[in-house]
Amino acid sequence: MTDGQRAHLGKPRKAAIAAWIGSALEYYDFFIYGTAAALVFNKIFFPTSDPATGTLLALASFGVGYLARPIGAFILGHVGDAFGRKRVLVFTVLLMGISTVLVGCLPTYDQIGLAAPALLVALRLLQGFSAAGEQAGANSMSLEHAPANRRAYYTSFTLSGTQAGQILATAVFLPVAALPEEHLVSWGWRVPFWLSAVVVVVGLVIRSKLDETPVFVEEVAETKREKTPLLPLFRDHWAGVLRVIVASVIAAVSTIFTVYALSYAVNTVGLAKTPMLWVGVLANVVALAAIPLFAALSDRIGRKPVFIGGSAGCAVLMFGYLWSLSTGSWALIFTFGILLFGVVYSATNGIWPAFYGEMFPAKVRLSGMAVGTQIGFALAGFSPSIAEVIGGGREGWVYVALFTAGLCALNIIAVASARETHEVPTPELGQSKTPATV
C-alpha cells in the first residue's frame, strides 16, 4: 500500500474517531442534565408542596433544551453549509462545555428564589442550541470522508460517541447518587457539571486539527456554495426535511428510557437509584458494539430493512421494559433494558446518521439534517413530560408504552416512504429523479 493510499484510508478513520470523541464529550454534558433532572432538580430548583409537580417541572426543564434545537439547526445548519463543517464542530463543543459548567455553579431556589430555575432554563437552552449542530456536523463530516460502500459504518461512530457520552454521564452519577441525601442535594450533583471543563479543552484540541471534507471543498466551497443554503433546502428538498422530522421522533425511545423510566422507577415505584443507573450503563455498553454492527449490516442489505426492524422492536420491547419496572424485578429490568436500549434501539441509531444525510446533496446536507432532526428531536425531548402526565401512578406505564409505540409507528411510515440509498454513489446523493412527495 502506498503512502497516498494510507493517507486516503486514514482520513475517514480520523473523521470517525474525531466524531466519536467529540460526540461522547458533548453528549456527556447533555445527558448529565437529564440524570440530574430525574434525580435531584425537583428538590433544589423546583421545590413544591407536591413532589409530583416538582418532578414534572424538572422533567420539563430537560425538554426545554429541545426547544432551542430547531433555532440552532437553522443557524448552525446555515453556517455549516455556507462556511464549512469544521467551524460548526468547534463552536458547538465550546458552547456546550461552558454552559454545562455554569449549570454546576448555579445557586439553588432556596438561595435566590425563582431566578434559580430561570437561569437553569436559560443554560439548558444554550445546551440545546449547541446540540443542534453537533450531530449534523459530525455526521456530515464522517459521511463525506467515508468510502461510498461504508458510509453507514463510518457515520455510526457519531452515535457510538453519543452512547459513550451517556455511559460517562451515568457512570459519573453512580458515586454521586450514592452520597447521603443532604450531600447529594447540597454539592454532590454539581461535580458532574464541573467536570465538563474537560470538554472545552479536549474538544477544542481534537476538532481544531480536523480537515474540512473534500466534498465541501470541491463541490461546495469552490463552485457551488450557497450564500443562503436554507432557500434551496426548502424549495427543492422539503420532502426530505419533512420525512426526517417525522422519522426523528424515534428519539423518544431514548428520552423515555433515560429520563422518564428512571424517574418512574425511583420516584413512583420506589426502586433504588444505583441499580437503575447501572441499567443505563450496561445497555449503553452493549450499544457501543451493536451500533456499528447494524450500520455495517445496512451497508450490505440496505438502510430501510434494518431501520424499520429496529423501530418495530422498540415499540414492542418498551412494553416489556416499563412492565418490568412496575414489577420491581431486577432480573427482568436488566434483561428488557439491555434488549431494548442496548440491542434493538441500536438498529435505528446505527442507520439514521447515514440515511438522513443521504437524503440531501452536499450543498444543503448539514442544514437538511440539522433542521429535520432537531425539530423531530424537539418533539421527542418533551416525551418524558408527556409520559409523566399520561402515565399517572404505578399502573400508568401501559399508556406510556402505547404512546411510545405510536411514535415508533410514525417513524416506520416515514422510513418506508423514503428512497433506499445504500448503493447510491456519494456525488449523486439527494438527486432523486422522482417527484418530491412524501
UniProtKB/TrEMBL annotation:
A Pfam family: MFS_1
Enumerate the subcellular locations listed in this protein's record, separating them with semicolons: Cell membrane
Which Gene3D superfamilies does the entry mention? MFS general substrate transporter like domains (1.20.1250.20)
UniProt keyword list: Cell membrane, Membrane, Transmembrane, Transmembrane helix, Transport
- Annotated Major facilitator superfamily (MFS) profile domain ranges read 15-423
Species annotation: Saccharopolyspora mangrovi
The protein, known as: MFS transporter
Does this UniProt record's set of keywords contain Signal? no
The record describes its membrane topology as: Multi-pass membrane protein
Q: Where are the transmembrane segments?
A: 15-36, 56-76, 88-109, 187-206, 241-263, 275-294, 306-324, 330-352, 364-384, 396-416
> Record's InterPro entries?
MFS, MFS_dom, MFS_trans_sf
Q: What is the lineage of its organism?
A: Bacteria, Bacillati, Actinomycetota, Actinomycetes, Pseudonocardiales
Q: Which domain of life is it from?
A: Bacteria
